Amino acid sequence: MDVAAVVKVMVGLPGVEEQEGWAGQPVFKVRNKSFAYLSGDQTRMHLKALREEQEALVAEDPEVYAPSWASGRFAWLDIHLELADPGELQELITEAYRLTAPKYLVTQLHG
């Protein structure tokens, strides 16, 4: 999935803002809480997930998914965008958003 399509999915979610991260990379937030980061060269993405989901995706397809850090029930995925399935990536982005956004924004999602 190319980076323009990824950005379009993220900014199309209710209340999402693109900001500059601590190292100058794009970060996507909802209500000032981060759920996705693009790498500086925009070839990789760090995405919030549940710990179990991170483990399953990394085990299933280690060329696409790598573990990032984990804390509590959440873990972050390091995703190689060029190798990721577009449909699956869109689902993962939406799920990361659901894990982060307040319920009143989540109810505004379509589909």
Describe this structure in words.
With 111 residues, the protein is α+β, with helices and mostly antiparallel strands. The chain has one domain: Aspartate Aminotransferase, domain 1 (Alpha-Beta Complex), CATH 3.90.1150. The chain contains four helices and six strands. The model has no long low-confidence stretch (mean pLDDT 93).
> How many discrete structural domains?
1
CATH class: Alpha Beta
Q: Radius of gyration, Cα only, in angstroms?
A: 13 Å
Distance between the termini: 21 Å
Uncertain parts: none
In short:
By secondary structure, the chain is an alpha+beta fold.
List the main descriptive attributes of the protein structure presented here:
111 residues; alpha+beta; Aspartate Aminotransferase, domain 1; six-stranded antiparallel sheet; 4 helices; 6 strands; globular
Task: Outline the secondary-structure elements.
Blueprint: H1 3-11, E1 16-20, E2 26-30, E3 33-38, E4 44-50, H2 51-60, E5 65-71, E6 74-80, H3 86-100, H4 103-106
Antiparallel strand pairs: 1-2, 2-3, 3-4, 4-6, 5-6
